[in-house]
Amino acid sequence: MTLYFIGLGLNNEKDITVAGLEAVKKCDGVYLESYTSVLNCAKGDLEKFYGKKIISARRNLVEGDDNEIIENAKTKNVAFLVIGDPMAATTHIDLYLRAKKEEIKCEVIHNASIISAVGVTGLQLYKFGKVTSIPLENENVETPYDVLKDNLKSGLHTLFLLDLNPDEEKYMSVTDAIRYLLKIELKRNERVFSERTLCVGCARIGSKDQVIKAGSAGALLKHDFGKPVHCLIVPGKMHFMEEETLKLYS
């Protein structure tokens, strides 16, 4: 019996790989991790395309001590579907380790992740520094600002992953993220981030209606990025080719 960790990519039901779809077809139980991101399609679209009933797996199911995913994988083939790449989030690595401790055979089938897909902006992936997240509840949170500060000192780009709570239909936007950084800057006055700072706002990367907009933080505050999922990039020191590509999105 095998527990398959299967990446779904970033857009819709058709982004799954051939290897991933073949694995889903032979599974008795199929779970969809439903708290770190959302696809541009409904769960019903996945069920129709895959020919399988899918169980939504919220955080308490995936991280709970009495884990039905692991228990079921002891006696049957189980698929754990993850938007993006299955090993991009710590919570999925934790599930993998717990399954291994139970001597369950695990197989990982990778797919596109936002970590790599942001290369479409023209910013070179190897020049990104530490990736950080901005939580929805961020009143006393300053770590993302500190990450930006450290990355900029090294001339590196910063990717901000923006929090979401699909159960409550709460999604952080590019403009929310910029306001957060401006708020911390005002509080600390360290000249790290201002309305003149060059930013790249992204929405629904990997979809046909993706939005990529480059400009000053102040200018992006006036832009409507539409539906989730969003992310924000603050470039560091750029190569001329990076600068040239960003002009396409200005």
Oligomerization state of this entry?
A: single chain
Distance between the termini: 51 Å
CATH level-four homologous superfamily name of the largest domain: Tetrapyrrole methylase, C-terminal domain
The number of domains: 2
Return residue spans where pLDDT drops below 50 for at least 5 consecutive residues. none
How would a crystallographer describe the biggest sheet?
5 strands, parallel
* Beta strand count: 12
Order of helices and strands: EHEHEHHEHEHEHEEEHEEHEH
Helix content: 25-40%
CATH architecture of the largest domain: 2-Layer Sandwich
Structural class: alpha/beta
Describe the structure.
The mean pLDDT is 96. This protein has two domains: 111 residues, Tetrapyrrole methylase, N-terminal domain (Cobalt-precorrin-4 Transmethylase, domain 1); 135 residues, Methyltransferase, Cobalt-precorrin-4 Transmethylase, Domain 2 (2-Layer Sandwich), CATH 3.30.950. The strands form three sheets. It has a five-stranded parallel sheet with strand order 3-2-4-1-5, with helices on both faces. The chain has a five-stranded mixed sheet with strand order 6-7-12-10-11. Strands 8-9 form a two-stranded antiparallel sheet. With 250 residues, it is of the alpha/beta class. It starts with a strand and ends with a helix. Strand 2, helix 2 and strand 3 form a beta-alpha-beta unit. The longest helix is centred in the last third of the chain and has 15 residues. The protein is 32% helix and 21% strand.
